[in-house]
Amino acid sequence: MTPNVWSNIAADTEIEFCLATVDPNGAFTSGITRTQTSQTSFSIQTDNMKSSSSGGIDPWDQDDYLNIWVCDLSGGILGYATPPSTFNNPDDGVVIGYRYFGTLGTVQAPYNKGRTATHEVGHWLNLDHVWGNGGNCGSDNVNDTPTQEEENYSCPAFPHNANSCGTSNSAGDMFMNYMDYTNDACMNLFTIGQKTRMTAAINQYRPNLLNHNLCSNTPPVPSWNCLNGNCIDPLNGNGTYLRHQQLSGSLLLRSRHTTSL
Ligand code: ARG
Ligand code: ZN
Ligand code: CA
């Protein structure tokens, strides 16, 4: 539960993602791909999950899609993300260890409520840790999150560490913020200030996320059946079509994919 002192700054971020229904080839997709690999683990140092040449899988166009790689992640971290200043980096996206993704299957308590994705997407949209990194009451560049001395784990009781950074945190640490390190079940808010920062990051760095039409619930021209860029029109068996016939109105129209396949 969010303590009463902060209930007025707990935000509805109004940021929602959906699984893509159209892939970069214009084919229908569940938004999930699965890659078999002989790689036994993947690392933050080499980003080897992000390329098929190193046993992973290449990303989809980063200006249209948020890529999330779920894999066996070495080094004891739950996940990591690229902040938006690295938008053009081919590694742009979020990586999450398979034990810490979602709520089902191989997921492990206490990281079994999907909060690693919430946390990493926060970074992907320019949020810093609430303690500002580095310890010693650093800044997270958000005004309404109280200054806090360092990260928290597990789930402290409220109030926790009140005044440890002087009067700037008289109510103590906001350890239930998604940008701390507490257990999934302990986390429950982004603040209005964090929402403002994420919204600004979308507008400044990732505006195509607002424009594309790749996850509408009504897929474009469902008569076409496409696999890996090869499409068949079930009406006439013709395998050649103009992409704009299929993706009318979508973002891909203005991209380089307007020629026939
Ligand atoms: N990057 C952080 C780590 O690897 C993620 C922390 C996520 N916390 C959570 N409760 N799911 O430690
Ligand atoms: Zn983090
Ligand atoms: Ca702050």
Notable features of this structure?
single chain, 261 residues, little secondary structure, 3-stranded mixed beta sheet, two-stranded antiparallel ribbon, 4 helices, 6 strands, 12% helix, 8% strand, disordered C terminus, binds arginine, binds zinc ion, binds calcium ion
Describe the structure.
By secondary structure, this protein is low in regular secondary structure. 12% of the residues lie in helices and 8% in strands. The protein has a three-stranded mixed sheet, covered by helices on one side. It is elongated. The model is unreliable at 242-261 (pLDDT under 50). Calcium ion binds next to loops. Arginine is lined by residues 77-80, 100, 111, 115-116, 119, 181-184.
